[in-house]
Amino acid sequence: MRLGKLCNLVWLRKNWPCLTHKSYCSNSKSIFITTPIFYVNAAPHIGHLYTALLADATARFYRLQGKDVVLSTGTDEHGLKIQASAAKHNKNPKLYCDEISSQFKALFDRAGVSYNHFIRTTDKTHIRAVQHFWETLERKGHIYKGQYEGWYSVSDEEFLSEEEVCDQKLESGETQKVSVSSGQPVVWMAEENYMFRLASFGPQLREWLNSGVIYPKEKRNQAEMILKNLQDLSVSRSRSRLSWGIPVPGDSSQTIYVWLDALINYLTVAGFPDDLQNWPADIQIVGQDIIKFHAVFWPAFLIAAGLDLPKQIVCHAHWTVDGYKVITYSL
User: Fold this and answer.
1) At what angle do helices 80-88 and 93-110 cross, to 10 degrees?
2) 50, 38 in Cβ contact below 8 A?
3) Are 6 and 44 in contact (CB under 8 A)?
4) Are 55 and 19 contacting, i.e. CB atoms less than 8 angstroms apart?
5) Which helix (H) or strand (E) holds 260?
6) Residue 209 and residue 12: Cα distance in Å, rounded?
7) pTM value?
8) Of 25, 31, 55, 314, whose CB count within 10 A is highest?
9) Closest listed residue to residue 7, CA positions, set 55, 38, 50, 48
10) Element (H, E) at 6
11) H-helix or E-strand spanning residue 149
């Protein structure tokens, strides 16, 4: 099968200048390169490997120049989708995560991905980092308790505004609400939980985006659209709905939102909260379906916590054939 324009060599030839035109290194700091951590609701597929190989090629480029590089990858193991997948397979969630995470690690090892850290969000060090980060946001006044009502995509683990959902007609003739970006079904949620004051960070986020941190530049359009109607973000779920996740410190009735949990993995690898090193991240490589989380939520969380922002986020597209996204199969 011919896979359009997204073979590794073509992508690297086209995009390598953006990954190397800045001087990321200093005498005291390693170059910190990250992949997203991959969701373990199913076995790894070619899209996951593609992202990891892009990050690996970038890391190897810098190492060939004699520079010290830290490359991190890993697995995202909390959330409603994981809880449901484990139940579907009649397995304990932790055992289910162990099984799928080991498949990701084995795949990356077979492919020769030269990672320094393979992090799992079920690691005790990560759980501690997430709870400390939460306490930092709360202490600084960026988290409050409120009533959330809105659409939620379980598949994407994403809260959505009215503008981000649409009606889809089913074969039965009925209609259902789906996410505009992913096409996944959404459900209406109404519950009391904790909110993050995302709306207050609009000016700082706009300034950061305008600095050219997102590459290629057209990928920042999605983030800029969100900034036009920026609203506070629900950052917890009722533990009665979602038990498989990190509890909110001081409130065992709530579970920390899976994306807040997941994004902190980059800080965990860097030694947060005890001994933060090699921060900020120099190059964060992500797929276009998660640019919203890395270009809006992530920098807002960091600004709120008083931490430096990533130097560059490189966003690649989906694998396509004749302009259509390839259905990816497990490897």
Assistant:
1) 100
2) no
3) no
4) no
5) helix 258-263
6) 23
7) 0.86
8) 55
9) 50
10) none
11) strand 143-153
For residues 258 and 245, the answer to whether their CB atoms sit within 8 Å is yes
What amino acid occupies position 292? K
Which one-letter amino acid corresponds to residue 83? Answer: Q
pLDDT tens digits for the chain (331 residues)? 333 333 444 545 555 545 554 444 445 689 999 999 999 999 999 889 999 999 999 999 999 999 999 999 999 999 989 999 999 999 999 999 999 999 999 999 999 999 999 999 999 999 999 999 999 999 999 999 998 887 888 777 777 777 788 888 877 778 888 888 778 888 887 888 999 999 999 999 999 999 999 999 888 888 888 898 899 999 999 999 899 999 999 999 999 999 999 999 999 999 999 999 999 999 999 998 899 999 999 999 999 999 999 999 999 987 766 666 655 556 6
Quote the CA–CA distance of 124 and 142 in Å, as a whole number.
Answer: 25
Compute the CA torsion angle 13, 15, 18, 19 (nearest 10 deg): -80
Q: Is the peptide bond before 273 cis (omega within 30 degrees of 0)?
A: yes
Identify the DSSP state of 226: H
Q: Which residues of 189-219 are buried (b: 16+ CB within 10 A; e: fewer)?
A: beeebbbbbbeebbeebeebbeeebbbeeeb
CA distances for 216 relative to 22, 51, 209, angstroms: 15, 15, 12
Residue 143, burial from CB neighbour count under 10 angstroms (0-12, 13-18, 19+): buried
Q: Could you give the CA distance from residue 281 to residue 28 in angstroms, rounded to a whole number?
A: 14
Contact 265, 123 (CB under 8 A): no
How many residues can be counted in the chain? 331
Asked whether 157 and 258 are in contact (CB, 8 A), the reply is: yes
Q: CA 128 to CA 71: how far, in whole Å?
A: 22
